[in-house]
Amino acid sequence: PMLYPDRRHEDISVDYYQFVHDGTARAAEKVASSGSPVFVNPWIQAYYAAGLSRIRQQTDGAFQAGAVGVFAWNSTLNYPDGMYEGNEI
């Protein structure tokens, strides 16, 4: 799934961890209900609004919901320093 939690342009506060956790869990449940093996790698937000702390909140949410990895997207390929330290991205 593509789980981009930033909704600042709509003036909505978002819990980055919970948004990605819930989306990952729902995707895993849907795949499992079809009888197929479950293997979920969500796309997370790693652009302007997603500083290092928000990226880590998203990865924590994904992994704790059963993801086996994540894809972090930023169209400029300009990722925050330290993003890969201690993470399995």
Short description:
The protein has two helices and three strands. It is an alpha/beta fold.
Account of the 3D structure:
35% of the residues lie in helices and 9% in strands. With 89 residues, it is α/β, with parallel strands linked by helices. The protein has a 3-stranded parallel sheet with strand order 1-2-3. Helix 1 packs parallel to helix 2. The radius of gyration is 13 Å and the shape is globular. The two termini are 15 Å apart.
Structural class: alpha/beta
Percent of residues in beta strands: 5-15%
C-alpha termini separation: 15 Å
Rg calculated over all Cα atoms: 13 Å
Number of strands: 3
- Helical content (DSSP H or I, runs of 4+): 25-40%
The DSSP helix count reads 2
Largest sheet data: 3 strands, parallel
Shape: globular
What is the averaged pLDDT score?
Answer: 83
What string, H for helix and E for strand, traces the elements in order?
EHEHE
Topology:
Blueprint (H helix, E strand, L loop, with lengths): L1 E2 L12 H18 L9 E3 L6 H13 L6 E3 L16
Parallel strand pairs: 1-2, 2-3
Helix pairs in contact: 1-2
